Amino acid sequence: MTSPHNVTPDNAAPATDWWRDAVIYQVYPRSFADADGDGMGDLAGVRSRLPYLRDLGVDAVWLSPFYASPQADAGYDVADYRTIDPMFGTLPDAEAVITEAHRLGLRIIVDLVPNHCSDQHEWFRRGLAEGPGSVLRERFHFRKGRGQNGEEPPNDWESLFGGPAWTRVPDGEWYLHLFAPEQPDFNWDHPAVQDEFRSILRFWLDLGVDGFRVDVAHGLVKAPGLPDMGHGEQLKLLGNQVLPFFDQDGVHDIYRSWRTVLDEYPGERIAVAEAWAPTAERTSLYVRPDELHQAFNFHYLNTGWDAAALREAIDSSLDAMRPVAAPTTWVLSNHDVVRHRTRLGGGLDRVRAATLLMLALPGSAYLYQGEELGLPEVTDLPDEVRQDPSFFRDSGQEGLRDGCRVPLPWSGEAPPYGFGDGGSWLPQPGDWAALTVEAQTGDPDSTLELYRTALALRRDHPGLGAGESVEWLDAPDGVLAFRRPGGLICTVNTTGAPARLPAPGRLLLSSRQLEDSDGDFTGDFELPADTAVWWED
Length: 537
Prior knowledge:
The protein is of the alpha/beta class and 537 residues long. It is built from 13 helices and 20 strands. β15 and β16 (488-493) form a beta hairpin. It is globular, with a radius of gyration of 23 Å. The chain starts with 22 loop residues before the first strand and ends with a strand.
């Protein structure tokens, strides 16, 4: 089955705005599929499983970083943006993934990490070797320290991974890193940095990628003078306060220049901002018509399983995007957060209901690998196998991101469940046999088949996908009910008890079995707890 959205990069077909209602699937390459048997996922493994993603019904695949990297932060410390890390394969392997995806009607979005690079990047290594006054140091944030002998950091900023955001080098200068010390921040005021990244964009666009997910899109520009915060515990303020190192107005000039590059290429190439901003209105600035195409909706991801809170998040998200004519995005999980089966509580019933709610909303939806299998967070990984860099620091993030990065189970009764012939880089639970792709395929009651059915309906039904609003309907407390254009109605019970309400039409899809299984509902019906239903009026 080929997606109707497919427009290959060398096809000059009329614009389709495919990205406005696209379902985009995030692949974390090291945990998706291992083709060479070394226990680590790779690009050849991704290529081998692309038919699975086509059959799942997604429109595009977003690949987390596979660039050359010392892997101090799972590839988000890039040493060379034009080279593939040997652990993942080669540049021809990347080209083969792009080519095969396009053949199957899928688009490819790659991660771009512009806020920082690896301390093994050529510019940084040469800048260190050349010492104070090096022109290459100007492409980063090198400063003299404070104190009588420069022994104190230049300001009081904290790293998101804990501790000061500054590291001192042997010659006495300090450099800024908002993340790990191995990830020095670029100085985006320097024209060479801006030129380099426009060149990197073109390199990958020339290879045929359909877009970029922009890591830390809000962090590139720092406030002039790098002023002190004046207090500690800065990490607790992320997303809800103005910060001198995030969401500075200067980032928008950068993205306007990027949009010019993207628009030079046929096939509607896009960019997606990972942007933490204090308000939804500030986030909307990243997706004005001459900037990026989408921004991740962290407000929705961080909302609990509560009808009133969900309605507020949905309304505020749609309201913020409407003035800039950008699609709202919806996401429940990614590689940095606890999987929503565990985070939301309630088990598989709640997962399935949350999925149908998300897929019924107007805009673009993001799926994180394995959520279609109903995978829970792995919470009992032993300390000795963990690899999240923030786990090894004294403060900062909780350091438990490995739990959502455990490799996928494809088949079989025991680990590594068809992931590869050489085990898996993080241990898989021994009770995942019933969650494998093989076990769930063809089972009409499985979570995988629910996703396949929901995505097929979403692709074909005129009331699902693109749009900018929902029409809220009267419903009991704890129940959400809304109508979409084209006659689709979604009802969701977020409470712990059944709710009685009028059947609004013909049942299309339910997240769990209802009493009248033939779909012929009249009058009131009972909507079970943690259940979502799609209807056609």
